[in-house]
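To assess whether the prediction recovers the assembly geometry, we first specified each molecular entity separately, as shown.
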Amino acid sequence: MVTTTTPPAPPKKTNRLGLEIAAYKGSRSTLCAGCGHNAISERIIEAFYGLGVEPHRVAKLSGIGCSSKSPAYFLSTAYGFNAVHGRMPSIATGTMLANRTLVAIGVSGDGDTASIGIGQFVHLMRRNLPVIYIIEDNGVYGLTKGQFSATADLGSMLKTGVVNDLPAIDTCALAILLGASYVARSFSGDKRQLLALLEGAIAHRGTAMLDVISPCVTFNDHEGSTKSYSYVKDHDEPLADVSFIPFFQDLTVDYEPGSATEITLHDGSRLLLKKLTSDYDPTKKTEALRVLTEAHDKGEIVTGLFYVDTKSKNFLEELNLVDEPLATLPESRVRPPKQVLDEVMEELR
Amino acid sequence: MATTHVETREAEAPPEPQKVLNDLSIQVATVNGSGSQTANTVLLRAIFQMGIPVSGKNLFPSNIAGLPTWFSIRASKHGYIARRKEIDFLVAMNPESAEEDVRELKPSSAVVYDERLNLKRLRNDCVFYPVPFDQLVAPICPDAKLRKLVRNMIYAGVLAKLLGIEVEEIQKALHKQFRKKAKAAELNWNAVRAGFEFAEKNLPKADRFFLERMDATRGKIIIDGNAAAALGAMFAGVTVVTWYPITPSSTLCETLTEYLKRYRIDPETKKATFAIVQTEDELAAIGMVLGAGWAGARAMTATSGPGLSLMAEFAGLGYYAEVPAVIFDVQRLGPSTGLPTRTAQGDVLSVAYLSHGDTKHPLLFPCSVEECYSMAMEAFDLAEEFQTPIFVLMDLDLGMNNWMAAPFAYPAKPLARGKVLSAEDVERLGLFERYRDVDGDGVGYRTLPGTNHPLAAYFTRGSGHNEKAAYSERPADYVNNMDRLARKFETARHRVPGPVLQEAAKAEVGIIAYGSSHWAVVESLDQLKEEEGLEASYCRVRAFPFNQPVKDFVRRHRRVYVVDQNRDAQLCQLLRLELDADDGKKLRSVRHYDGLPLDARSVTDSIVVQEEEK
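The predicted structure of the complete assembly is given in tokenized form:
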């Protein structure tokens, strides 16, 4: 006798909030197939799902460009604001001033950040606003069909044969100098490292700046480009092996004491940096700048967490704001009573 | 030596001059940075405290120290507080401008001057009062460094004696000015006395002008428009203020900062119920306002012309993505840098349509410090009700000069926060479409980031979108959305403040004005009536889009003069765009754009000339 049994459907995987990963997905990407940006969106989905961040508490912000379209492709049930070119930092700042309980993630590109948006980028880093700032960095303008941006490397060549004759702006070095408190570089194709850095960025409460090399398959993935898949794969030198342990998980990852640095983030999560080089300390600005400068001189792309500072005050703490969102304070707390007006009028008499 | 001058003057003075009581303008000409502002404010306040209606205009250069500056004080028993063109009393302290200032006086004016300038030689039809300022200041102010500042207080004492300003009121005003700085108050008081005593001994009264106590300022306050707007913003419950310094708007946010620090720190937690950010530029200022407005805060910025130009792209985003924002534009003179410390109404057209594509914005035109206060509150309500940027068009004259006013009224209405859905609302409705015109008024419902409901989130964008806020390039979606925005603008037309009308029976002539021009126009209406026998009606426009009563006013009159403080008759042009062609033909323009606050005589003269041409 043959009995056929249908195996019971395996229970759907959920995160600590009981949400499935589907709750963190976005609409279908309209970017080119194989675009590095899509891989970054995937990691963002995994990071927010993995850490169990409530999607309605997330504000997704962007400027203009291919990168800036991507917030539509993750976390559909989060709030999104696709603003104007190069000005995402001010929108992000206003949003967080209005509601400090939100988790802000800004997605920008290299043109949106390092060319038109360099002014707002600089001041955002300087303020150390709690925001995750991702540069999807391909060194090229995609939507206007392949012009160089300010992160294109000196001597890099376009498909059309045009050679870039100006040096690149290193957004990581700039962010460290200016006061960002979590600065990293990764590669869209490095799933494990990018996920760990994103998770660390979500747990951090200051400006977390991630420059993610994200090759443009259409305009900048050819020989002569220094931001192509093959170039980055050949020249990527990870600084450390990054692991992330969320605050709600016991420490089970194996690591050898002495070979790793452990950083406790604001919510109690930990970042483990298993050293590949012997003397790297991500809490020292000078070290970070030395590594970046040396790598640049050697033509290497160093990836990993360059700098982290969990002690300095963020912008909202500096402003001494009340704990509740300013946006929804009741009238009784934002309109002073009549006695105040009477007092002011008396002084003006 | 002073007596020599006095004798000469007496010999040439016209016999038995007619006494002019409580109706004069004083112009003080000093060097910028010499501390004359204190002396001028004290004079203004002392006259105010004597119950005489008074106004002050600071005509200052774009400079920290060294260039000529003028301050004019007008006392008027009739209650006129616009600038007066004619000067009755000149205080000439600045060698650089003195000769030109004296030559421009009309006959029988009086001049108090630093005797070293020897101005007497220039005219024989004015009254001259030389004062040896250096000799008077030395004994009362041993510290040579302070002399430059104290020196100016001497003319306050001289004027007090010559005009009859009560010295007790000067002393009171000094104490108000210096509050806790007793030493400074005493030093300045000694200077006032030195001036007074010198005039008493050496300067016999030879001009026609007198000030005498009356009772027309009881209970009133003195405040500048920027401070008034700041108060309005505080009582509107503003929570996010982002700004970049620019004259003449800076003091709006600076004063607001002072008020908020005083009155909006949570008493229990000692934490702030507001955020103020001085930004890197105006782009960031408006960007933060839009980010905060989107997230539900009452957010504002203040700026002037050049700043608005920088805000243009974001203004279009605010309009199209439908984000509440309040922008105060304290207008100054000119395209480009222009004259940054002089007044104008030059931004009307550019702000009405600020940004590219089909963009238009509601504008409010406060005319007084009371309206700076009340319209600031109104602006925040309108911004949230209509989910769009609202521009409050002030100007330097209104914003930076001191104005007398009735005390402000505490707001009677609760804050109007507009159509915002909570998670419970969304649950009950079972549906949320951000840009759907549910009520037929063009205004959709919005949710705020952080609202905990799976249907509540939406994606705000400046790119084409449909009713559900999804990206769309469909022509029908685009048209549908733009038509709804136009409908929303029409709803706003009925909601924005209507005009203030003052009708003369069967008048053929109407006058339309807005903003700070009001004060010159009310005086001009009297001049037209008294001097020309012309009784005109008056319509003070308070907002754009123009509502029906404005259009009806034009229809009722044969000729309508539109008063603009700009070269291109901007409000007049804006009216023509919205009026029927026949009504548009009735409009004539009165324009003033030299950077000085508008005066009644200029309005009257322009209307008289055009009436003759009919």
